[in-house]
Target: Halogenase
Amino acid sequence: TRLHGLAGIDEFEMVRATQATFKLGIEFRNWGAPGDSYIHGFGKIGQDLYWLHCHQFWLKERAAGRAKHLDHYALNTLAARMNRFAMPDPSNPQSPIADIDYAYHFDASLFARFLRGRAEAAGVERIEGRIVAANRRGSDGFLDHVVLADGRTVDGDLFIDCSG
Model:
């Protein structure tokens, strides 16, 4: 989400174009033992209460034998278990979802097509070809140009390998 903001990409435009869904974490099934599941939530675990951190409450409950798995104390993982999502509300710093972290689940080919369209609309030149040689500058060892199988030489300041 931060990358999209830096690139000037409208989040909801990207979601529509890539058929994305929001996700709050990744679930691991049968992780510790058969039948167990655990959600690795994005962002912090639990909400602090004034000067006390959530993990302090969890450690006290664990010492008393009452603690559940740590992911049960994180708002994002609880919401994920209930199939709920709300956009963060940074305008209200007191809100428990003011800075909740999330990610996307999308079709990678649709995302690549979306980025390609945005980049080309911004004037980025896309060159396809199989690289057969990469030549470095003698002065500093940085990449100077690449040679493609069809003989073209491509100079540049930034090269991105999109071969997968």
Remarks:
- The radius of gyration is 23 Å.
- Helices lie at 2-6, 11-18, 54-63, 75-81, 108-121.
- The mean pLDDT is 88.
